[in-house]
Amino acid sequence: MSREQMPSASTGRWLSQRDNFSKENVEWEEFYRNNRSKVPHLTGSVQQYRQTMHEAKMRAQQRGTPIVEGLKVDDLTTDSPPRLNLRIYKPLSPEPKGAVMLYFHGGGWALGDLEGEDNICRVLCVQAMLNVVSVDYRLAPENPHPAAIQDATTALRWVFQNNLTHGFEKSKIYVGGTSAGANLAAVLSQISSTLGVDIRGQLLRSPVLCSSELHYQRMGLKSLEQFVNTPILNQHSMKQFIEWYQPYDRADPTVSPLLSRDLGGSPPTFIMICGRDPLRDEALAYADKLEERGIPAQVAVYSGMPHAFWIFPELTTTKAATQDMIHGARWLISEIRST
């Protein structure tokens, strides 16, 4: 198998297994040797970062198999300032489809738009029977922390207030995202109760969960220092992203949700983790903390794979990860949270 998906109850602590997840993935190593020029290496200004990642993501959109049937897609803008662009994906199946997922794209809080992960939203909509609301949140460094969180909150309120218009069920709201987008999803899960909204589950793909270097060291996390020169995301680019994001306190839970004292209130969680990702250890530690607090969680780890490898749809591991994501979303929808 190109991935390792293990029931948490029988495997113990996730972080203790991290060395096993670093082992070489033969398919990726061969692909990287033959396609090095296609793999994004982020350097330069924020504009250069954006251009590099935009080209990589649009290549992924073009190389993937587009889903054009079985759903309806609309773009709209919220009324209240700051005005926010949203893309709404609605399944056309006659089955009940009131469940809705707010989805946040990746890009280190500084890159990305509604186009870059359009295919992912289409897959979630059609294959998992989810209404998906993709959020075009404001980007750093022009709009530093907490602008993206404010936009995430605006989007959540919009879903909650417009449920009847769009056929959403208030009792079936989920969040999901990739990398920094998964960070926003995790933060929103933690603060949603203060907004009077119950988030039923979160789908986190290669999430950013701890940006405090002090806590990173105290917790024995090592992957950021281990993966200095990895493709797609490495130590330097991750540190650059957090500098652009400019949080007032990197240990604050709205920046580092792993450090929240209220993780026991987290919803059921599905986490996708890459074995050679600078973000690997914080995601493994997050899975451990959820387990310790009795939160239903499922984890899929892709050994030897770099951060967000799924931007290459030709990889068999990408196909496997896509199926895992679909199954993870379906599991979240079916999961009945214990009281």
Written account of the structure:
The structure is a single chain. This protein is of the alpha/beta class. The chain has one domain: Rossmann fold. 38% of the residues lie in helices and 17% in strands. The protein is built from 13 helices and 9 strands. Strands 1-9-8-7-6-4-5-3-2 form a 9-stranded mixed sheet, with helices on both faces. Strand 8 (269-276), helix 12 and strand 9 form a beta-alpha-beta unit. Helix 5 (118-127) packs across helix 13 (316-334) and helix 6 packs across helix 8 (180-191). The longest helix is centred in the last third of the chain and has 19 residues, at 316-334. The chain is globular and about 50 Å long. The relative contact order is 0.17.
CATH topology: Rossmann fold
* Total helical segments: 13
Oligomer: single chain
> Which structural category fits the helices and strands?
alpha/beta
Would you list the SSEs in sequence order as H and E? EHHHHEEEHEHHEHEHHHEHEH
| Biggest sheet record | 9 strands, mixed
Mean pLDDT over the full residue set = 93
Taken from the alpha-carbon principal axes, the silhouette is globular
Ends distance: 36 Å
Radius of gyration: 18 Å
Uncertain segments are 6-12
The first-level CATH class is given as Alpha Beta
The total tally of domains equals 1
Strand content: 15-25%
Brief overview:
By secondary structure, the protein is α/β, with parallel strands linked by helices. It contains 13 helices and 9 strands.
